[in-house]
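note to self: dont lose this again. the chain is below, predicted strucutre after it. 325 aa total, dont forget to put it in the shared folder this time
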Amino acid sequence: MADGARARWPEAEVVELPLADGGEGTLEVLSSALGARPMKADVHDPLGRCIEARYACTGSTAIIEVAQAVGLSLLSPSERNPLKASSLGLGELLVAAYDEGCTRFVVGLGGTATCDGGAGMLRAPGIERLRGTHIELLCDVEAPFVGPHGAARVFAPQKGASPEDVEVLEKRMLAQAYALQVRTGVDVSALPGAGAAGGLAGALLACFGATIHPGIDRVLDLVHFDDALLGASLILTGEGKSDAQTLMGKVPMGVLRRAGARAGDVPVALLSGRIEDRPALEHAGFHPVVEVTPRLLPLQEALDPRTAVQNLHQAVLKMPFLPNS
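---
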């Protein structure tokens, strides 16, 4: 995108600012922005296999991305089964960071293969030592722990659950909500955001007094996005696919909101691989809205990094817009 902008507007100053909303990619974005040192820990993946998970440290702060330990990307499509997947690995990752001297944790939630309400995480040896630490959760959903908009019913199907599996998972989540309330006195069942990451957010909120924040807003603060807006005449943002869900706290919407609040009438262009719900995106304020991937291009080819870069570059060159001089 940046290379395309430089080619399209050679006289412009182009500022690159990688962003994330708490899901996958958050570790890299915040590590770079905060100058954190990379770390590794041996943990168990969602199916109990030993893997090496990455995190980062800066001072006494650990940057944790839950997908590194319990991510859906760690499993093949045939292995995805939230009835069997455990969040144990996240607990092990948190303990490993604590053992390195970290007492503050910035935890990006998203992309998990699990829906166990944090039951696996809470079984990690030494996890109770995190009581009294400061845990900050970054997420892009407000899903409650249980119910029609909760972790099981909304997100478990994306993790491989059948309709029958969803009903079993909902019962497990109800039982876990009760167990957490007995253990801590905190009722997470209807708490906004508690259903994030298969209910991991709820367990961290109840057991360790974690705080929860819209992921993109917190990342924008940490990378000093407002400073980068100074003097801007055009903002380019995007994602793999943009649709109505984009307006519910994803990266582009966070950028649009912040740009409107801080930079006035500076236009925000949305360039995404696939565009759905175009009227809603345009009504929200994105201009222009550009679909990067040709509709007839096979998906496998479109996902090839070289093809994606080329398509994005060409899309910027053909944008029906010129920034203000």
